[in-house]
Amino acid sequence: MQIPKPYLLFLGDVRDALAVKMARGILTWRPEACVGQLRLDDQTPSLGIDDLPLEAGRERGAQTLVVGTANAGGKLPEHWVDTLEQAIELGYNVASGMHQRLAAIPRLADAAKRQGVKLFDIRHDAPALEVGNGKRRSGRRVLSVGLDCAVGKMFSALALEAELKSRGEKADFRATGQSGILIQGEGIAVDAVVADFISGAAEYISPANDADHWDLVEGQGSLFHPSYAGVSLGLLHGAQPDFLVMCHELGRPHVRHLPHIQLPSYAACVERNLANARTTNPDVVLAGFSINTSNVDEAQARAHLAEIEAEFGVPATDPVRFGVGPLIDHLIERTR
Asked: Could you tell me which residue ranges the D-glutamate N-acetyltransferase-like C-terminal domain spans (predicted)?
């Protein structure tokens, strides 16, 4: 999938700052590909870049309007479809990671055909897959896992890839979600893969490689989230990780969108993830923790990370505040 750049990031009229994490991820890791943002009202969280109407975005060279939000159910609100149709009429390609297919909306499909532009349904563009087989394969693989969904698994994997490359190591981020695919330019959105083929999809995107090559596999969901645990389990089996990096957001009160479900302890999460990962790699180990500490001050953040390190004997860091250097030091030391 080759999605034309640069992008105009469409945020619709969402109210939850986490709902724009897809657009924020693209901007963070590929800022040169983003000409601006399009919000339907000023109550929508801003990415801190220029607000551009569709016409101005085209004047700045935008080739693709990217639906940069995620919502429960993955369906486009009707009034968003109006905006997408207007964009197509102006010559934009449109890319979406929603479960609802752009191509299945007749007026968008008709407009795209008429204007000669493309609709990219990121969640639905996958090769023919086989079921996972669990055969051991060469290379080093790190999988980001978490206590909950939306806790920084993609960000952590990208940060690990960047740090490894900065040290001259061979490394590739392996995208398993729509944001990661837009950032990396390739991957499979595993939450749209038929359940039997999730582990096979993970095997496909992280195949056998050189013994010293690192695959940083983007995790999804959580084994403790009733809505998304199935995808998490498939990735644990198919990625066949040598190392797990546990991710979390400090201060989160409960499982996202489910206030009646309490978050697990770090220990419970580590134990369950390792137990399931051992199905395809009996030698898997915990490499460390990547914690979003933005809800507390630096002193509290450092104290929390120190507690984790004392309990588990592995590095704990906030990749934004403190970088992932300690995690990479530990990973490299473990593979010498």
From this structure: 131-327
